[in-house]
Fold this protein.
Amino acid sequence: MLSRVADSLFWISRYLERAENISRIVDVNLQLMLDFQTLDDESLKAHWEPILQSTAGEDLFHKLYKKCNSKTVTEFLTFQQKNPNSIVRCLYDARENARMVRDQISTDMWEEVNKTYLFMRSKEAKKLWSNEPYDFYRRIRMNSLVIQGIIDATVQQDEGREFLQVGKYLERADKTTRILDVKYHILLPSVDDVGGAIDKVQWGAILRSASAYDAYKKIYVSDVVPWKVAELLILSEECPRSIRYCMKMLDLSLRNISGTGKASFSNSAEKLTGRLLSELNYSSIEDIFKEGLHEYLDQLQDKFNKIGKEIFKTYIFTPMPSLDEEIDVQFQQQQQQQ
């Protein structure tokens, strides 16, 4: 497979997954605000700034907007084209990558990606966002899930599909760490609030932001407890949004691409992914809290970045030969012609 094709397939999934995650985070926090309608400007700013930090858009936001409140932050994360991580920009980039590899994806997949982007640019989208934000963000999430279903049902099960999987699970794992880290930054209440009603509502929002609330209730049944939420989102082997599950699927797809068995590796990307998966398999939530949740999540994000770079170096980047290497290649070719 051409490196250009692999790169586009990888990024189609990353951008679609990112748009879905941002949609869910914004929606959950807007609903959370309904329970705290008396907040003043400073309190609103304190609530939304961690959300901006989790999307790495804090500095750009403050350059473009004077106030930090529900309207400006949601507009920035949804329709702001100068924000590379807004929903509209993610869908645009996903569509552009899909357009470049039209012959590698199914017609149904292309049409759904294109339709979702065109909806985001329509007057209908702005009107729905203004009047019924819950319905708007739900539509974005449903469109993303439809595309994932179309990929499973119509895209050929070859290495191209594996690159789609690699992009999806790497992005999903990264976003799960950022959603959890939001609690550390902003939702962290005063000491008196820990374990209180507000604390539980906020941890419930974290679960909903990761589409894991139902999974939590099914597994733990009990009230929302911080360490159980973290355990589910980091270490669960079955929850499709947990970091461990994402690493398991990422590791599987990388090995399907290279044909390498479980007990070995053939490149640095597989080595890093396999090592992280082993760490997660043998970790406990007690170990993670002992180390510090925020510090642990920071380390995970750094590891995801390294895995992404190694995937790029292994499958996408084609280094230009140095002058000495080029001379050596020409020399060997001349030798063979003699």
About this structure: DSSP finds 17 helices and no strands in the chain.
